[in-house]
Design brief:
CATH architecture of the largest domain in chain A: 4-Layer Sandwich
CATH topology of the largest domain in chain A: Nitrilase/N-carbamoyl-D-aminoacid amidohydrolase
Oligomer: homodimer
Number of domains of chain A: 3
Chain lengths: 627, 627
């Protein structure tokens, strides 16, 4: 039997368009003499469409196009694809869920000439950005409501018993039901897992381990078919990278599709074994290459999905806006990128020079709009202003120098960049990194603004690594090399003068790792553990997770020689992380997800007062008493 | 047996503080000779704390304070309260959930002198803002993992068999398991439902019907104990109104606590019947009173929780900012409210006059900051600006009159209000209503900005009703009466001149109802249904849901005499609702939830291209062909 998978692009919330994409894949397959075509999970509705799943007319539309796609099957050609359906359509039994709405299922349809067989997803993820139980019932629920239902029965296609599974069904470590095993026990000769799973740093390695183990342990070849596309849940933008793979019955990988690339890959299934028809060498990437490719894909598609062509970037000469500029020029072309430097007297010639050089290196548009006059106008309008009440009382307003820092930041984002973007028919970018985003080290309606937080899920050290990577792969200076030695600074006051070596209050090699431990680790680090490791002198090793980074015990000891200093710093940032940081993130733009815990829908927050547990307070007291 | 419930205030994410609140209630009860005290659900951790439930050290802290609270029990005094716990603590069996983390439970603890009995929530809501299955396993799961577990066994307190249930357990319409019935079958003589359930317009009526039916049908008295507090899930702020109640075994309400008021209410339980010890008349409010009280409570508490004292309000003389001003003065005092009028040449004397009169009526602070000069400065900096590239090419920027409207809006929000707020140690409000929010009729970093979208869940007609209500209950003009006849307008150009009767493009009596049907209805209206009802001539009746509103068939016919005009308007706003509206909501401030579908966490969105189903497109084609 000739099997093909098509790694196709799925558009969220557009069944008509997705039907057309899948139909074209089916027609190509038929022309090429394929017996069985496999398409991704949720290929008709799209996956991250949020409460759109609550709209019955949309589900009906998906069912209509799913049936139409199923009609592509002939006596010589079958296809498997993922879609949403009402339980009622499968069972002829009307049922509502615990939300009072019609029950819906995440299904795989196996379309053959005279029939469609429905298979239902067994394991519904309900963590990170996933919330399938909000919308769907699972395979077990169907069994409990439909006595004749056979949960794991394979489907016979061309005489071959095909086990049909859906995405999380293959990630069964933490579940009691093991769908791969159960389907194999029911006689499956080959295991197909249709997926729609987003890029997450390190995920593909973890997937390779699991699926290879399924194949090896069950002695069955496995096909993992993942879709492409850019889908979001408002605050967080996920890149679905494809990277579909196949393993033979020994668990050896026999094919792996390129990330973010539409591909048809063909196999022969014979005598219980799967072979790739046009085997290609399996490529291995570095993490930094994956991050780069994901960002380029996300930028390109986010722009296209929103009918945007041009961006304006506030180019300060700092590393974050520099990286953003390099990424956008690569993703959408130098003719669509305008860098705007917005100096005041606090901006050094150094950083202005870097911004100019960057524009030259990239060949994109550049201009300068000083903001001193406008900041002065704001100061003159506010300072000395005397609001009155009806009793004739009044008071006087005065902007502090700290207030004036924020005035400058808002003047750049909310006034200049927004106006230039609208005049050019463009949007302007947000250039905040994850370290700043964690503690809200940015001004609302100023540098927090922008249409997309392109690098909002990259820690500061990754921003540098990516800049180096871009120069390396291009084998020339794109990112001005001065960046790598410049002290990071907001340049909003004399206290942040880069030429005097002054700048940000963050010690990035340490705070990057600290914040990752608090926000990104699966079992998140507690303040108690962090303080205990500091006291034990092994905090750097613990935060580094056995990898080598710039963070050393010596660096921690240098900055925080005493527990008092360590605790003061820890609590200062923790309060910002859980306090003002949350308030700013609520109004921040969408973030492109890279790590396994991006801010937004993947990491759900509540604006609350920061809290210290009793255990931490006890350890803190002990540590301070010992000084 | 003397039973008391204490309607206490729960602070999200602060077990220590909540323990102290509950301990005080316990000590009062002991002093007053109470046998059994009942406290709300999740009284120790708080409820809407998002992924804070993933932090093991926080859960351990909750368990510590829960045990400490349980120690208040004596041989004469028992108490029931809600808290979170690890399954491991209950069972001594280590278990991880499908997210790989330790299993947690939403529990009621019945603390008696020598024991604590744990009861587990059976029904876990997973819709709207609720997502309990993300964090907790339910009673049935516990039974499946702990064979000796008795799911519904009542707890014997002072010889009385008390059925202990948690919140959703009483809202069992859409669930197969009926916890109230099951517990009664197991011998419960009185049914206690500890809750932590937020205010939603109309919810209390629905609750009265259900719980009264439980009491009547099961012939058991019912105590429904709900907590107070303001908790949020980042984008949406929920007001927990208390409104605890009790019903006797005939289903007659015998007590109802005031909304948003801390109260101890005492009962006697004897011979199977519950009587209130100090019965008070049961008050009935209008919806508009409930909305008013909820907003005042939410404002007050949101300010307090964030250590905020003062607000600045951009007062345009329009109805939205006027309502906001009246609410803030009532909630936090006139000395803490500053109205700022920010005129340009497009602002009429009429609206400026209203803003001045409003400040006088309220007795709060007032000032005026014209923005013409700043807008001119921006125009002069951008118009004629010529970005260049390294090839010496250039192009010229020019702001259109539409661009200048947005420049004005951003100048008001992002420049003036933000600067004044920072100089005064205040924050500034967002005054957008739900109608505007639905279609994004506002400017990002301009009128979309603000620390809190106070009236962001009120349709325009409710904004008017609330203004009328405020004048009525105060029996004087607080809201200037000119507001009620003024045409709503943004006054950003000559085309929006109110004195010429020009203004917003929205026909509020119609679009309010249309948008509610699309966004708020439980089974949401589809475009197909809407168009069909228009064609059938009964759209107003359908949108009005049998209530009387300003929307009539004649009004619809007057504005949209033909299907072509109707469809053009429908699609225009639908595209904004699903397109730019989403993009703006992503960066909008938190909204105080009032209706049963507030934007934000309660109504999850994905930024996608608007989509029209095949069914709609067919009906549309037919309708247009018939012209």
């Amino acid at each position: 039997m000739k099997i093909r998978y098509s790694q196709v692009t799925i558009v969220p919330g557009n069944p008509q368009k997705n039907f057309e994409t899948c139909q074209k894949a089916a027609q190509r397959a038929k022309k090429d003499g394929i017996d069985l075509l496999i398409l991704p999970e949720m290929a008709i509705p799209g996956y991250l469409i949020a409460d759109k799943f609550e709209e019955n007319d949309f589900i009906e539309d998906c069912e209509y196009y799913s049936h139409k796609l199923a009609e592509e099957a002939t006596s010589d050609f079958s296809l498997i694809f993922g879609t949403v359906m009402f339980f009622e359509t499968l069972s002829k039994i009307a049922k509502t869920g615990t939300d009072g709405r019609k029950v819906k299922l995440n299904t795989a349809w196996v379309a053959q000439s005279n029939s469609v067989t429905y298979k239902v997803k067994t394991l519904l993820p309900n963590y990170r950005e996933f919330e399938e139980p909000r919308h769907f019932k699972d395979n077990l629920w169907v069994k409990n409501n439909l006595s004749e239902w056979d949960m794991f029965q394979p489907v016979i296609v061309n005489g071959v018993s095909v086990g049909v599974l859906i995405c999380e069904d293959g990630w069964d470590d933490d579940y009691e039901i093991k769908p791969f095993e159960r389907t194999t026990e029911c006689g499956a000769q080959v295991l197909v897992d249709i997926s729609y799973s987003p890029f997450t740093l390190g995920k593909n390695n973890s997937r390779d381990r699991r699926f290879s183990a399924h194949a090896r342990n069950l002695h069955r070849p496995v096909l993992y078919v993942n879709g492409l596309g850019l889908q979001n849940n408002a605050k967080t933008v996920f890149s679905f990278d494809g990277s579909s793979c196949a393993w033979n019955s020994k668990g050896e990988m026999i094919a792996q599709s390129k990330m973010f690339t539409e591909e048809d890959v063909d196999f022969n299934f014979e005598k219980g074994e799967l072979t790739a028809l046009n085997p290609k060498p399996i490529e291995k990437h570095s993490d930094i290459q994956d991050i780069h490719d994901t960002l380029i894909y996300a930028i390109r598609n986010y722009m296209a999905q929103n009918n945007l062509q041009r961006v304006v970037i506030g180019a300060s000469g700092g590393v974050d806006s520099t990286l953003a500029a390099a990424l956008y020029v690569e993703a959408i072309g130098k003719e669509n990128v305008l860098l705007v430097n917005m100096p005041t007297k606090f901006n050094s010639k150094t950083t202005i020079g870097i911004a100019e050089k960057l524009a030259k290196n990239l060949g994109c548009w550049y201009t300068s709009v000083p903001i001193g006059e406008s900041a002065k106008l704001t100061a003159s309008q506010i300072n000395g202003l005397k609001p009155k009440n009806s009793d004739g009382e009044k008071f006087e307003l005065q902007l502090s120098s700290f207030n004036m820092e924020n005035v400058q930041a808002r003047d750049r984002g909310g006034r200049v960049l927004a106006a230039i973007a609208s005049a050019w028919g463009a949007v302007f970018t947000n250039n905040g990194n994850k370290t700043e985003t964690t503690v809200g080290y940015a001004t609302l309606y100023g540098d927090v603004a922008g249409f997309l937080a392109t690098i909002g899920d990259l820690w500061k050290h990754t921003v540098y690594e990516l800049c180096k990577f871009i120069n390396d792969v291009n084998n020339k200076e794109i990112v001005p090399t001065e960046i790598f030695t410049l002290k990071p600074s907001a340049e909003l006051s004399e206290n942040q003068a880069v030429d005097k070596g002054l700048g940000d209050p963050l010690i990035y090699p340490y705070h990057d790792r600290l914040f990752a431990a608090l926000q990104e680790w699966w079992n998140r680090a507690s303040l108690t553990e962090i303080l205990q490791h500091y006291l034990d002198g092994n905090l750097a090793a613990w935060l580094n997770h056995d990898t080598e980074t710039e963070l050393t015990e010596a660096l921690i000891k240098e900055h925080f020689p005493t527990a008092k200093e360590f605790i003061a710093d820890l609590e200062r940032w923790y309060k910002l992380f859980k306090g003002m940081g949350v308030a700013k993130r609520i109004q921040a733009p969408p973030i492109i997800a890279i790590t396994r815990r991006a801010y937004g829908f993947d990491y759900r927050e509540s604006a609350m007062q920061p809290y210290f547990t009793r255990k931490y307070l006890e350890l803190r007291e002990k540590a301070l008493a010992e000084i």
